[in-house]
Structure formats: structure tokens, C-alpha cells
Amino acid sequence: MKPPATHLDLLQRPLFAHLATVRPDGAPQATPMWFLWDPDSQEIKLTHTKERYNYRNLQHEPRISLSITDPDNAYRYLSMRGVVERIEDDPEGDFYNLLSRRYRGHPIEVKDKAVRVILHVTPTAWRERAG
Hints:
Elements: H1 8-12, E1 17-22, E2 28-33, E3 36-38, E4 43-49, H2 53-60, E5 63-70, E6 73-89, H3 94-104, E7 116-129
Antiparallel strand pairs: 1-2, 1-5, 3-4, 4-7, 5-6, 6-7
């Protein structure tokens, strides 16, 4: 499913997305995250570790939501509902460093690379607001 063309810039810029997962007790949990939109596969990729709550939440409920706010106009946003279709190990932290270059401008030492993973999210719905 393609995102709205009017808001592609929010996917292309190094902005933070708020990832919402569902805890085992049914409560939502939201976390700001780095992400990468892959226009070829039409998926969003995020980096995470196997030791965090969101990862455990995804083990029982793979559906997620993301929201991205335009820092130049706080009333303009893009939100997405999707499903984590695949979780891929990132044992060298390569994807983490790809995101580090995108967000920080340089790679860093990935101290938790042994437990680092890539979340592959397939969008199921998009919603945008022009602001």
C-alpha cells in the first residue's frame, strides 16, 4: 500500500516516528524511533533489540501504528497502521549504522549488536492531515 504522495517528504526526511505496540495486557505503548522508508518494497524498517518491551509486545501482537509529525508544521502529520511481517537479525549492527548515518551523520559503535534486529513493517492503512 502506497503512502499519500502529499506526505512522502515525511518518510524521506530523518524524522522520528512514534511506534505504538500493544502490551500483553492490552495497553498501548509508544516509543520514538528511527526508521527508513523503502519505496521499492513499500515497507518501513526500524531497528530494535530483542531485550526491549516493544520487541516482546510484537511477539504476541505484530500489528503496530506509526505517526510522524512535520517539525515545520505540527498540525501536518502522517500516520500508518501496519504489520511486522518479518524480524531479521542485525548481528553486526549494519542497519543500525545505516540509520545512524541518516540521523546523526556518522556511524557509531553498536554495543548491543548481538541482540539487534530489523523490523520489516508492511503498511495496511495510511492517514494524513495537511495541517
